[in-house]
Design a protein that fits this description.
Elements: H1 2-30, E1 33-36, E2 40-43, H2 47-55, H3 59-67, E3 72-74, E4 79-86, E5 91-95, E6 103-106, E7 110-111, H4 125-128
Antiparallel strand pairs: 1-4, 1-7, 2-3, 4-5, 5-6
Length: 145
C-alpha cells in the first residue's frame, strides 16, 4: 500500500510540474515572445529586403545581403520578442539577442509553442539574454543618449 501511495504522489507531482511549465510558456507568449521555426537568413531590417531574400534567394544574394547587414540568420528554437505584426503582409517585426536593430521576418517562421534549440533547450527571455538577469529586480529600462 505504501508503494502505491508513493507512486501516486510521484505522478501527481510530475503532473503539477508539467502544468506549471506550460503555464509559464503561455505567459511568455502572452507577453509577445515567440520561438523561431527555421534556420536561415530570414530576418531583415526592412520589409523590402525580407521580400527579396525570401522570394528570390540565391547563394550570391544571401552572401551580399548578410555582408551588408541587410539580412540576419534566424536559428531554430531561438526566442524573440514580437514588436509589431503586419497580418496583411504576413510579416512580424521582432527584437532578438545580439542585434541592436529591429528586424522583420515572416510570421510563419515564428511559433507560439516552445521549440527546443540545437542544445535541446527551450530558451526563455532570461536564458537568451533578452531580459538581463541582473536587472530582473529593477524593471526600469534605460536608453542611451
Amino acid at each position: 500500500m505504501k508503494i502505491l501511495r508513493k507512486l501516486l504522489l510521484t505522478i501527481i507531482a510530475v503532473g503539477m510540474a508539467s502544468t506549471a511549465v506550460a503555464r509559464n510558456y503561455d505567459e511568455l507568449v502572452a507577453e509577445g515572445y515567440r520561438w523561431t521555426t527555421t534556420d536561415g537568413p530570414y530576418a531583415c531590417p526592412s520589409k523590402d529586403d525580407l521580400r527579396d531574400i525570401t522570394q528570390n534567394r540565391t547563394d550570391e544574394k544571401e552572401l551580399h545581403m548578410v555582408g551588408d547587414l541587410r539580412a540576419y540568420y534566424l536559428i531554430r528554437g531561438a526566442i524573440v520578442k514580437v514588436l509589431q505584426e503586419d497580418t496583411r503582409s504576413g510579416m512580424t517585426q521582432i527584437q532578438t539577442v545580439g542585434i541592436p536593430t529591429h528586424l522583420w521576418t515572416l510570421s510563419k517562421f515564428l511559433s507560439k509553442h516552445p521549440i527546443k534549440d540545437a542544445y535541446a533547450v527551450i530558451e526563455t527571455p532570461e536564458s537568451a539574454g533578452l531580459i538581463p538577469t541582473d536587472t530582473l529586480g529593477d524593471l526600469t529600462f534605460r536608453t542611451e543618449n
